[in-house]
Amino acid sequence: MTDWHTPYRRMQLKVVAFVLGLGIVIQIVKFIGFLIRRLIGLGAVGAAAVVGGVVLLVLVIKAKMSAFVSMILVSMVLALAARVPVGEVVQTMIDGMGKTLGTVAIIVGLGAMLGRVIEAAGGAESLAARFTRILGRHRVIAAVTAASFVLGIPIFFDVGFIILAPIVFGFAHIARINPLKIGMPVAATLLTLHVVIPPHPGPVASAATLGVDVGLLTMVAMPVCAVVAVVSLYAARMLKVDSIVLESGPLGSARESAESTYEPGGVIARPHATGPGTVVFLIIEPIAQIMLGTVGQMVTEKGGTAHAVLGFLGSSTTALLTAVLLAYVIIGRQQRWSLERRGKVLDSALPDVATIVFVTGAGGVFAGVLVASGIGKALAGALVGIHMPIIVTAFVISLALRASQGSATVAILTTGGLLADAVATGGYSAIQIVLIQMAIGFGALGLSHISDSGFWIVTKYMGLSVKDGLKTWTVLSTIAGLAGFVLTGALWLVV
Predict the structure, then answer these.
(1) Which pLDDT does position 39 carry in this prediction?
(2) Would you say residue 269 has pLDDT above 80?
(3) Is the separation of the CB atoms in 181 and 141 below 8 Å?
(4) How many angstroms separate the CA atoms of 251 and 256, rounded?
(5) Distance of alpha carbon 34 from alpha carbon 394, whole angstroms
(6) Which of 83-92, 207-216, 340-349, 388-397 has the lowest mean pLDDT?
(7) SS3 labels along 326-364
(8) What's the whole-number mean pLDDT along residues 375-399?
(9) Which of 11, 44, 218, 449 is most buried by its number of CB atoms within 10 A?
(10) Please, are residues 249 and 155 in contact by the beta-carbon 8 Å criterion?
(11) Which residue has the higher pLDDT, 50 or 478?
(12) Pick from 382, 420, 411: nearest CA to 481
């Protein structure tokens, strides 16, 4: 029997891994170069986009300028360079800010409040201690990632990550693990499901445009997403995160706990800490509420009262508000907090998330300017003209749109619209159309960077600088997207 643990075999495996990794890096570099050439080929607008992106990175990473100020400044200059009418520049920026914050601000605020109450009561630590004793330290990362897979089916990416963030730091503290080793695969798993699996808005809307069988899409995509989650788990282990110094963020005390040192088995949930059962209930409650609304809307008549009520109850805002109120009552009573103390605990979460909200909004400004300039649409049109195989075209266009304007949902919807005619007239089978839709989703999974609101949510919650976020989260999301596309392409060859 071959011993794969000998130094020689290990060296062989390392060489193979290095060659494969080098090949992937080369292809990514080639693709980025291709995108740049295409953008410059679009004229002054494309060149301005390239220069603007470079300047933005220099300002944030090298000059250490505020990310908020940098993105506002570069967005304004880019809008002028892209010949957006002078009188419309500021309004375009305001629209980009408003559109992003309209969906993010309330969710981030309520999610931060829920996390702060749980953390202040010792709930995250208590839950992590219980599960670590049951599962063992070596299974903690896999267990939390698996939980995020289940959570990510009905829950939007940003909501799921905000809910799980305090739990991530709690587990990291108890298991003596760098929080990034848990948070990165959790975020990648949540985003994978968000861009591929119904009932998330991008895949649902694009599926309707392409005529995809949603049931078949779910059945085929679910195991592929599970494999991608495993790939993300192992890829996250290869990221060099131990040397990264985490910055302050909305989970300050949890982060300090995660970075503290202590003896094995020496950390016990603090006296009178909220029990794990309460924490599980507060996490599951909004998930169940959202699932009830989602399923209920599927089985009720659109436009009816029941459909509207279920949509209201199942919205992320309503579900998180319900969870916050329950935490206010249940944990407040358990901890014997006064009403004043309860209110102060809730309010204490808001200053810490202010940076996330404003920076995310600035990312929306940058993305809005890119959309208004027509860069993404022009680039997509240029890529369509290359006449690649349709499944490759679907992935590349979606990836290009994701990189150029940030929003995964917009990338999915736009790509679906661009390919609708080709799919309708191509004579493809039902399973092939499903695979085209999956390729679009996995394209929108990669290259999450400064124009993506999710980039700022992940990096700011995890305490990452922009530079470290690009080295970790951007790389991991791209690896996940490439892995998903490779698996989808393999299925395409079989069917």
Answers:
(1) 53
(2) no
(3) yes
(4) 9
(5) 16
(6) 207-216
(7) HHHHHHHHHCCCCHHHHHHHHHCHHHHHHHHHHHHHHHH
(8) 72
(9) 449
(10) no
(11) 478
(12) 411
* Per-residue pLDDT at 185 exceeds 90: yes
Is-contact 123 279, C-beta < 8 A? yes
226 phi and psi, to 5 degrees? -65, -40
Work out the number of other CB atoms within 10 angstroms of the CB of residue 308. 13
Question: Does 290 have pLDDT greater than 50?
Answer: yes
How far apart (Å, rounded) are the C-alpha atoms in residues 254 and 274? 15
What would the pLDDT profile of 53-72 be if each residue is shown by its tens digit? Answer: 677 767 766 777 777 787 78
Residue 416 half-sphere exposure toward CB, CA atoms < 13 A: 28
Residue indicated by tokens 């470290």: 468
In whole angstroms, give the CA distance from residue 480 to residue 188.
Answer: 7
- 344 near 315, Cβ under 8 Å? no
CB-based contact 408:191 (threshold 8 Å): yes
Please, are residues 402 and 408 in contact by the beta-carbon 8 Å criterion? yes
- When computed from its CA atoms, the radius of gyration of the chain, rounded to whole angstroms, is 23
Task: Give the DSSP per-residue string, 286-324.
Answer: HHHHHHHHHHHHHHS-TTSHHHHHHHHHTSHHHHHHHHH
Q: What is the pTM of this model?
A: 0.67
For 270, the 3-state DSSP assignment is: coil
Domain ranges of the chain: 95-494
Residue pair 249/461 in contact (Cβ under 8 Å)? The answer is yes
| Angstrom distance (rounded) from CA 403 to CA 419 | 19
Q: What is the pLDDT of residue 254?
A: 46
For 215, other C-beta atoms within 10 Å of its C-beta total 10
Look at residue 228 in the predicted model and tell me its pLDDT: 95
Cβ pair 155, 201 in contact under 8 A: no
Give kind and range of the element (H or E) at residue 475: helix 475-494
Residue 481 confidence (pLDDT) above 90: yes
Do 192 and 484 touch, CB atoms closer than 8 A?
Answer: yes
Q: Which residue has the tokens 């953390």?
A: 119
Rounded distance, CA 97 to CA 365, Å?
Answer: 5
Count of beta carbons in the 10 Å neighbourhood of residue 97: 21
Interatomic CA distance for residues 56 and 74, integer angstroms: 6
